């Protein structure tokens, strides 16, 4: 935002608004003086009210004059004023504006009570005005404590919009109710003079509600339509003057009626609700009093201020329309949309990548547009589009959108792949790549060999719990790399903590999981209100996130203090970036291993085992064997393709408006790459539902002409997973080691009947298979002896051979 911040558009608007506001303060001061001289016998409460409003006006004028002087004079030429905090005087002026607005609205609500002789409707207006006052106090506090103007606008724009919208709604409601009751009095009163007065009151009251309500709407339009400056602040300062003038003019309007209609005697009517004491709910009146004959002969017309406001609203609306329409080709095709809610009713609650693929086929486009209750989503369904946008235009498509549930409520803002594009993200990624670069394979391969081989005896003794065993290998290797922590047993508390935390994160990240992901404003709703159960979940899940971030690192610090820490990323960097490794790369691996164990068909397994036996003989595979075991590499590629663990990419965001293939991609649109659609493309993978590693082989070698699933499974552009080489090396060695030692087949029940895998998957950011059973049996007595020898041999990366 700061790079596109328009200083002139803000400072100029502030100076103009200061001039207008000062002029209107002079008007309100004249009106306050006129009131106290003309209505010295009015009730004491009204006099105190007028004095209070005028004093608040005076304090408000001094505050904004001071704050604008700081911005326009003291800090003249400072192009980074958006990065600085609000002047204290301006923050205090927000509170004063709330006090004035609340008093004025409560006054007119009291007029409704006098006319309607009912407390119910005025009470509703008072309640709404009270809610607005509470929100203004909240905004005042945040203006005091927020460190910069731009941060306030980013974090609390919703609060400002709510205050303005609620204020306008109350103004319109008050005007409508006053007009209604005055109209009723007009209909039921046959006396010509009184009828004339009521007619004038009706039009003035309509003006009063419109002028303040429309001004509030104008501020909202500027806040949304002109993000490059803070001109909305300028209009907000003028709104306060409109409130006070409407109050003073309403009271002083009785002078005009008395001077202009001398023949009319104001008597209390049982139907009209009008008294000689001035209980007329008269609207905004400007201080220039017309002569009596002009009052009688001139038809009701809008005043100069009204005309100026209407012109300003028209110009702003036109500018907003031009902003939207200028250089705005059509959106990409997509499903039909309804007003306001868009395609919300059609949005799937699970397995959305399948629906994305279907929509793409239905509209005949590999790029589709969705609008879900105002949230714009662009789904990319081909590698060509992904390469064009995420690689060739990576500057515009490398940041992350806000994930309210996962990032804001659960606190995963520190996680590398959720961080927005910028300096902190680049620094984290640089540290990771530097430590785990392929040339520094010793930083991860030794631990991978150790923990992969350690699971072999466990699979031999407890093959039914192969999921927990494989999970142990992945997590143990990850923790060893990241923190240098040894993991003992499959029920290690750190592994259980990581598993639980990852499970909750997997649930929270999808837009279809929680409504707050679609309507971020809901994250501010108090937890005690109905429909906010997600906040209780987020609070509980946040504790898991905090423990996952803190526990391993605290252990490393203790070991470093004791001099027993093992070399790791944590000991090298001493930053929590280490935890990113445990999440971003290893969760992907563990899920793939789970599929590998249950998905390799008998013929595929046999071919792989023949290749392994031919190359490695009577020892366990090593990383140096990879070039001679292409079939194992093909199996890994097919596992990544056949049932993708990450069916969609982590969402990105368009940092600026863009045009691609003649389609308009708006700034802030959520960009999703549908990896599932790419990996199921029959043009590149014939019979995509068939598990067939041979599709990647030609003449006994990897066929480089076949699209590599690795390009899709681990992301594209600047946000490509930096640990892809670590994940692939682990998957390759795990697959080769397991196939070297075990025959993997379908499980059987107690009666010897084969148990068919359900082939069901659990929808989520990580789409994992539902629990299933399979059988791990040693391939031979020699293989079992090889497995048992692992228990007695220290794992240092050296071969175990019989």
UniProtKB/TrEMBL annotation:
<dbReference type="InterPro" id="IPR036396">
    <property type="entry name" value="Cyt_P450_sf"/>
</dbReference>
<feature type="transmembrane region" description="Helical">
    <location>
        <begin position="48"/>
        <end position="73"/>
    </location>
</feature>
<protein>
    <recommendedName>
        <fullName>DUF6534 domain-containing protein</fullName>
    </recommendedName>
</protein>
<keyword id="KW-0472">Membrane</keyword>
<keyword id="KW-0812">Transmembrane</keyword>
<keyword id="KW-0560">Oxidoreductase</keyword>
<feature type="transmembrane region" description="Helical">
    <location>
        <begin position="12"/>
        <end position="36"/>
    </location>
</feature>
<feature type="transmembrane region" description="Helical">
    <location>
        <begin position="85"/>
        <end position="107"/>
    </location>
</feature>
<dbReference type="InterPro" id="IPR045339">
    <property type="entry name" value="DUF6534"/>
</dbReference>
<dbReference type="InterPro" id="IPR017972">
    <property type="entry name" value="Cyt_P450_CS"/>
</dbReference>
<keyword id="KW-1133">Transmembrane helix</keyword>
<keyword id="KW-0408">Iron</keyword>
<feature type="binding site" description="axial binding residue">
    <location>
        <position position="721"/>
    </location>
    <ligand>
        <name>heme</name>
    </ligand>
</feature>
<comment type="similarity">
    <text>Belongs to the cytochrome P450 family.</text>
</comment>
<comment type="pathway">
    <text>Secondary metabolite biosynthesis.</text>
</comment>
<dbReference type="GO" id="GO:0005506">
    <property type="term" value="F:iron ion binding"/>
</dbReference>
<dbReference type="GO" id="GO:0004497">
    <property type="term" value="F:monooxygenase activity"/>
</dbReference>
<keyword id="KW-0503">Monooxygenase</keyword>
<feature type="domain" description="DUF6534">
    <location>
        <begin position="169"/>
        <end position="254"/>
    </location>
</feature>
<dbReference type="Pfam" id="PF00067">
    <property type="entry name" value="p450"/>
</dbReference>
<feature type="transmembrane region" description="Helical">
    <location>
        <begin position="201"/>
        <end position="226"/>
    </location>
</feature>
<feature type="transmembrane region" description="Helical">
    <location>
        <begin position="301"/>
        <end position="321"/>
    </location>
</feature>
<keyword id="KW-0479">Metal-binding</keyword>
<dbReference type="InterPro" id="IPR002401">
    <property type="entry name" value="Cyt_P450_E_grp-I"/>
</dbReference>
<dbReference type="GO" id="GO:0020037">
    <property type="term" value="F:heme binding"/>
</dbReference>
<keyword id="KW-0349">Heme</keyword>
<feature type="transmembrane region" description="Helical">
    <location>
        <begin position="158"/>
        <end position="181"/>
    </location>
</feature>
<dbReference type="Pfam" id="PF20152">
    <property type="entry name" value="DUF6534"/>
</dbReference>
<dbReference type="InterPro" id="IPR001128">
    <property type="entry name" value="Cyt_P450"/>
</dbReference>
<dbReference type="InterPro" id="IPR050364">
    <property type="entry name" value="Cytochrome_P450_fung"/>
</dbReference>
<dbReference type="GO" id="GO:0016705">
    <property type="term" value="F:oxidoreductase activity, acting on paired donors, with incorporation or reduction of molecular oxygen"/>
</dbReference>
<feature type="transmembrane region" description="Helical">
    <location>
        <begin position="232"/>
        <end position="251"/>
    </location>
</feature>
<feature type="transmembrane region" description="Helical">
    <location>
        <begin position="119"/>
        <end position="138"/>
    </location>
</feature>
């Amino acid at each position: 935002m700061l790079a596109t911040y328009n200083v002139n558009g803000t400072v100029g608007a502030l100076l103009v608004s200061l001039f207008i506001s000062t002029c209107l303060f002079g008007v309100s001061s004249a009106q306050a003086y006129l009131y106290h001289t003309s209505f010295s016998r009015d009730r004491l409460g009204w006099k105190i009210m007028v004095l209070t409003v005028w004093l608040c006006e005076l304090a408000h004028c001094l505050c904004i004059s001071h704050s604008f002087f700081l911005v326009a004079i003291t800090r003249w030429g400072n192009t980074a004023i958006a990065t600085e905090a609000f002047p204290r005087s301006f923050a205090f002026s927000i509170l004063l504006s709330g006090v004035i607005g609340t008093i004025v609205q409560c006054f007119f609500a009291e007029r409704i009570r006098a006319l309607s002789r009912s407390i119910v409707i005025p009470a509703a207006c008072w309640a709404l005005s009270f809610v607005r006052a509470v929100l203004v106090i909240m905004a005042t506090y945040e203006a005091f404590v927020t460190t910069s103007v731009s941060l306030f606008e980013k974090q609390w724009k919703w609060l400002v919009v709510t205050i303005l919208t609620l204020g306008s709604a109350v103004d319109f409601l008050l005007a409508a109710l006053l007009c209604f009751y005055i109209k009723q009095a007009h209909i039921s009163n046959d006396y010509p003079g009184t009828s004339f007065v009521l007619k004038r009151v009706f039009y003035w009251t309509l003006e009063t509600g419109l002028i303040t309500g429309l001004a509030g709407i104008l501020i909202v339009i500027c806040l949304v339509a002109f993000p490059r400056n803070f001109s909305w602040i300028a209009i907000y300062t003028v709104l306060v003057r409109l409130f006070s003038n409407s109050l003073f003019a309403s009271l002083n309007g009785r002078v005009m009626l008395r001077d202009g209609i001398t023949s009319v005697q104001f008597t209390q009517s049982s139907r009209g609700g009008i008294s000689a004491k001035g209980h007329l709910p008269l609207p905004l009146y400007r201080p220039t009093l017309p002569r009596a004959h002009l009052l009688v002969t001139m038809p009701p017309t809008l005043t100069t201020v009204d005309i100026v406001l209407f012109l300003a609203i028209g110009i702003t609306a036109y500018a907003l329309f031009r902003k939207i329409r200028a250089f705005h080709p059509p959106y990409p095709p997509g499903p039909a949309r309804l007003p306001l809610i868009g395609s919300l009713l059609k949005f799937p609650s699970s397995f959305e990548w399948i629906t994305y693929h279907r929509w793409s086929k239905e509209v005949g486009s590999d790029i589709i547009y969705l609008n879900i209750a105002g949230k714009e989503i662009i789904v990319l369904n081909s590698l060509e589009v992904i390469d064009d946008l995420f690689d060739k235009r990576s500057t515009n498509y490398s940041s992350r959108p806000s994930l309210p549930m996962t990032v804001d409520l659960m606190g995963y803002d520190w996680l590398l792949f959720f961080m927005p594009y910028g300096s902190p993200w680049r620094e984290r990624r640089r540290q990771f790549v530097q430590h785990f670069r392929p040339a520094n394979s010793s930083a991860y391969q030794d631990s991978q060999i150790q923990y992969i081989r350690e699971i072999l005896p466990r699979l031999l003794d407890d093959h039914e719990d192969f999921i927990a065993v494989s999970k142990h290998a992945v997590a143990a290797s990850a923790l060893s790399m990241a923190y240098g922590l040894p993991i003992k047993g499959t029920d290690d508390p750190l592994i259980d903590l990581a598993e639980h935390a990852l499970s909750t994160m997997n649930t929270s990240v999808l837009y279809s999981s929680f409504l707050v992901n679609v309507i971020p404003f809901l994250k501010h709703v108090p937890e005690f209100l109905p429909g906010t159960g997600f906040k209780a979940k987020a609070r509980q899940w946040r504790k898991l996130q905090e423990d996952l971030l803190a526990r391993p690192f605290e252990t490393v610090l203790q070991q470093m203090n004791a001099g027993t820490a093992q070399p790791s990323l944590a000991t090298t960097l001493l930053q929590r970036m280490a935890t990113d490794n445990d999440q971003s790369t290893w969760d992907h691996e563990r899920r793939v291993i789970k599929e590998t164990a249950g998905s390799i068909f008998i013929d595929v397994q046999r071919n792989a085992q023949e290749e392994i036996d031919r190359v490695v003989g009577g020892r366990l595979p090593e990383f140096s064997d990879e070039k001679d075991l292409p079939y194992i590499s093909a199996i890994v590629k097919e596992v990544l393709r056949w049932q993708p663990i990450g069916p969609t990419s982590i969402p990105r965001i368009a940092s600026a408006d863009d045009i691609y293939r003649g389609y308009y991609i708006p700034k802030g649109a959520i960009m999703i790459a549908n990896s599932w659609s790419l990996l199921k493309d029959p043009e590149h993978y014939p019979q995509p539902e068939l598990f067939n590693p041979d599709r990647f082989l030609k003449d006994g070698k990897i066929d480089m002409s076949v699209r590599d699933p690795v390009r899709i499974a681990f992301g594209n552009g600047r946000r490509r997973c930096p640990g892809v080489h670590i994940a692939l090396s682990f998957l390759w060695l795990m697959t080769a080691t397991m196939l070297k030692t075990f025959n993997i087949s379908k499980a059987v029940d107690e009666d010897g009947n084969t148990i068919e895998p359900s082939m069901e998957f659990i929808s989520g950011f990580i789409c994992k298979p539902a629990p299933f059973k399979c059988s791990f049996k040693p391939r031979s007595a020699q293989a079992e002896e090889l497995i048992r020898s692992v228990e007695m041999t220290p794992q240092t990366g050296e071969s175990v051979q019989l």
